Amino acid sequence: MATDAPPPSKEEHQLPSTEEFVEVQESAEFGELRRSYRSFAFPLTVGFIAWYLLYVLLSNYAGDFMGTKVVGNINVAFVLGIAQFVTTFLIAWWYSRHAAAKLDPKAEAIKSKMEGGA
């Protein structure tokens, strides 16, 4: 038939089957990758959300405190607001380093195994 594709050459990789994906998902290597990600991302996410909610609650219910002048016309609310941005960028930078050092090598090993390279 005209729709039959030629068999893949040695240079081409065949796609893994559903069963192979499930096998890898249930493997210890994948479990370790998932644990590494979760042990980093979940605590930071919870911490950042708590930090953000603290800022919102202080803004709503502690107006006198947030209006306290720090230097000139810069008050506590402004300082904490800027700290929100700084915290966001620091978390992104930290995650990038963590992913490059811990997650990417594990993911690459799993990918290589799935593609038949190892």
What does this structure look like?
- The chain is mainly alpha-helical and 118 residues long.
- The protein has helices spanning 18-25, 28-61, 63-66, 76-114; strands at 69-71, 74-75.
- Helix 2 (28-61) packs antiparallel against helix 4 (76-114).
- The model has no long low-confidence stretch (mean pLDDT 89).
Key traits:
elongated, 118 residues, single chain, 2 strands, mainly alpha, 72% helix, two-stranded antiparallel ribbon
Topology:
Blueprint: H1 18-25, H2 28-61, H3 63-66, E1 69-71, E2 74-75, H4 76-114
Antiparallel strand pairs: 1-2
Helix pairs in contact: 2-4
Order of helices and strands: HHHEEH
Low-pLDDT residue intervals, each spanning 5 or more residues: none
The radius of gyration is: 24 Å
Biggest sheet: strand arrangement: 1-2
Portion of residues in beta strands equals under 5%
> Number of helical runs?
4
How far from one another are the termini? Answer: 35 Å
Helix proportion range: over 70%
Secondary-structure-derived class: mainly alpha
What characterizes the major β-sheet?
2 strands, antiparallel
**What's the overall average pLDDT, rounded?**
89
User: What's the number of extended β-strand segments?
Assistant: 2
* Backbone shape: elongated
What's this, in brief?
This protein has 118 residues and is mostly helical. It contains four helices and two strands.
